[in-house]
């Protein structure tokens, strides 16, 4: 989880930098789409980690029913996992294009990592999909349980927004400095 969190923050920073460069150069097309996909990937990753963290901590300290925590984990896996795969595919395609064009060791290693991560994410998602759907279907339908689940997700989304936005803004500032 810590590694995913760190990579997600790095993706937010790098996306801010890339979006700043795209704005400065006036680029459009796939480069612009990939820059914003990186930001979506970052936000989805941080949202996923925040949902897991809040659910675990809440269940550990008894603030959240364990069934609700399991529902939050299943929801995060299904929703944020799908977003991570979708945005990650765009970022992976861009990294492959950069590696083919530049042929630098770092771009090739980056593309290799992205390919590995995308395959791993798809495999993990496919492997856990049925179980996560089963958890959500069996989840207690009481209003209090649904309210707890909604609160967990909303709090996670808000925290993720502030973290992602801060890293994105730092990257944007760095791009502005580089463009001067």
Key attributes of the depicted protein:
180 residues, mainly alpha, 5 helices
Walk me through the topology.
Layout: H1 2-25, H2 30-60, H3 66-102, H4 105-138, H5 143-179
Count of β-strands: 0
Distance between the terminal alpha carbons, to the nearest Å?
Answer: 37 Å
> What order do the SSEs take from the amino end to the carboxyl end, as H and E?
HHHHH
The proportion of residues in beta strands is under 5%
Counting DSSP H or I runs of 4 or more residues, the number of helices is 5
Tell me the helix content.
over 70%
Output the structural class.
mainly alpha
Largest sheet properties? none
- Inertia-based shape: globular
The structural domain count equals: 1
pLDDT below 50 for ≥5 consecutive residues: which ranges? none
Q: What is the overall pLDDT average?
A: 92
The radius of gyration is 18 Å
Brief synopsis:
This protein has helices spanning 2-25, 30-60, 66-102, 105-138, 143-179.
Write up this protein.
The chain is an all-alpha fold. It has one domain (2-179). Helix content is 91%, strand content 0%. It is built from five helices and no strands. Helix 1 (2-25) packs antiparallel against helix 2, helix 2 runs antiparallel to helix 3 (66-102) and helix 3 packs parallel to helix 5. The longest helix is centred in the middle third of the chain and has 37 residues, at 66-102. It is globular, with a radius of gyration of 18 Å. The termini are far apart. The model has no long low-confidence stretch (mean pLDDT 92).
